[in-house]
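Lab notebook page, bench 4
Experiment: in silico fold of construct C2
Operator: M.H.
Input chain length: 785 residues
Purpose: comparison with the prior construct
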Amino acid sequence: MNRTLRILPPLVRSVIAAGLLGATGAGAQDAAAPPAPVDAVDPFIGTAGEGHVFPGAVAPFGMVQLSPDTTLGRFRQTYNWAAGYRHEDPTIIGFSHTHFSGAGHSDLGDILVMPVVGDTVPLEPGEADKPGSGYRSRYSHDGEVATPGYYAVTLTDPQVRAEMTAGTRVGVHRYTFPAGKAAHLVLDLRTVIYDYPGKILWSSLTLHPDGTLTGARETRGWAAPRKLYFAMRFSAPLATHAFVSTEKDVVYKGFKGPGRGPETLDAIDGRALVAQLDFGKLSAPLEVKVGISGVDENGAWANLDSEPGDFDAIRGKTRAAWREALSAVDVAAPAPMRKTFYTALYHSLMAPSVWGDADGRYRGPDDQVRQAKGFTFHSTFSLWDTFRAEHPLLTLVQPDRKNADFLASLLASQKESPFGILPVWQFAGKETWTMIGYHSVPVLADAYLKGVGNMDAKAMLNAMVSSADYGPYGGLSDYKSLGFVPIDREPEAASKTVEYAYDDWTIAQVAKALGQKDITARFEKRALNWRNSFDPKTGFLRARKADGTFRTPFDPTAINYGSDYTEGNAWQYSWFMPHDQGGLFRMLGGDAKAVAKLDAMFDFDNSKIDYSHAEDISGLIGQYIHGNEPSHHVAYLYDYAGQPWRTQERLKQIVESQYKPTPDGLAGNDDLGQMSAWLVFTALGFYPVAPGTGEYVIGRPFVERAEMTLPGGKRFTVVAEGLSDANRYIGSVTLNRKPLDRVYIKDSEIRAGGELRFIMAAVPNKLWATGVKARPYSMTGYGTK
């Protein structure tokens, strides 16, 4: 039964179930039509298993992610609760305003609010297995609803219906309390998703004469220190309140906060603050509107004022924004695939998230308040993940103005960085130094070479080179002098070597486009450094020591954090030279041996290997690991070896085993949209194996038809004629009615508009696009040279 249908009054449910509404005429046609894209999304996909996404309310790229938290994580045990919510948890602690979508690390969970009823108001969350021990509550999925921009659930213990919506910089709660019961809210500033020791450095609460409640806190966690401010208003007046510090042996006195008025009604500061807010018996639902800011409380107050309207107005505006964003691709497909596709597109449109206030101010990487001019500052850049498919997808499905904001934010961060480098993994304007590479570089390069973003090209190239030349970062000094990162001086050296080499290649492409011959030559040379860590004798990428010898002993299946590879092993990383696959295949001994090695990877028997110690290793198909990013391009590599039908077979295997329209429907962390963007591209029939080439490598489509509305208004249509479970292979391809005998399509061809048509077949066409000239770009070409 539809989740929304469950909560309707019984009479309405019975009428709808009986088909008595809209049973004739236009209504019957509407009933048969597929749901609109915004209604095809299921935010619960990925909330169980390894997906790490949240089901709550968020606007496209919104600053606020208002969602339920189902547990309080413990230090170094919060991986599974990186989004604050897990579908299998039996209780909800409260609703907080900031969350990551699918991250492999936890943080955020700011400003937790929870409704309470009755004469006694607990100020501690209590235990999940002890109902009534605190303010947390049991709930049922039967009463849970999630759609883009809206979340609702019935809290079993207080019998409160809780609804959430969000604008760009505001979150709005609506609580329907049981009649005749005293209504309260608990506002807890002590909780975070990443429960780091000494997590709260300071916090404050201030109640103003007009009833506005403001506050702030500074937290110690993944990105530290991190400041967040809020302003909160209520649709009903406060009857009474209590501000409490639960830190032992400390007494705090009130102070005048930085609010609008010369006086405050009450104020407190400390490291462990919780508020009890009492409203008495209410005759109407209570609405709570919250604005947040990374700048100051006045910024939060102004953000709150910048989005007027009540719950329904904000919900309607955000739903319209999602309707517009998701309509960038109009897809025809069977219901399960259509739901999976639009949910993936939805998850791809959450980050990078707005971090600038309505007046353009933001707190930058140096913790200073800055003023954006001509753009809105965004943060939450999970670049090791998202440079692969997420950012290339955004260049196609988002207006140029939004992409311009993303790119301008990266360049502003480089200028404001104390180290003068582009972001690595940034959120809330702060650098976390998580993962490897300098992958802002391919994001900028890919967009620039596509003509997206309207950037100052000279400043962009300078920022890219500065990042690539910053010696103290990740063994770059040795990389520049030795041509590889030595494992006896730097962990994960093999992975760093090849990822740096690819980033360097993208710098060379931009420099070439700008006529910078010296920079082009220098970075083209660095782009071939991947060869310095490849061992032709074993056929694997390996870590080398500073003296040039490969480290031993060597086990290509071993995965250990801080070892030779980053969240993977030699099987995955030996394929990561996306700009020079032809060069790799020569080292492997030619196309046939490359195909044999690819098959060996997918068909590997893992029965005697235990990867339970490695959190990010999920979605295994042999040694192909779809739940983590280093494998994401590998199925497309059969195209580079002249056997595209093998790519088509592997993609079917991956899509059917790694994605499904259920809560556990993502095989691994969505990683701020990368897992989802992979599915969006693959369903359309092509994938950006090497961003910066201007090419998408053809796989095979998984939707019957897709029409993309591109920035600028042109339309590009993909048609899969005869697509079925039996017709899983490409028989032939046409582009604008002309035969296409190559396994890639150019970005410029898509942006020009037109039609890509696949004729599907039950048997592989082993003659289509197999020649060397039909293959995608490779820096050193193909063959024996």
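Observations: The first helix runs from residue 3 to 6. Confidence is low (pLDDT under 50) at residues 1-31, 251-262.
Next step: discuss at group meeting.
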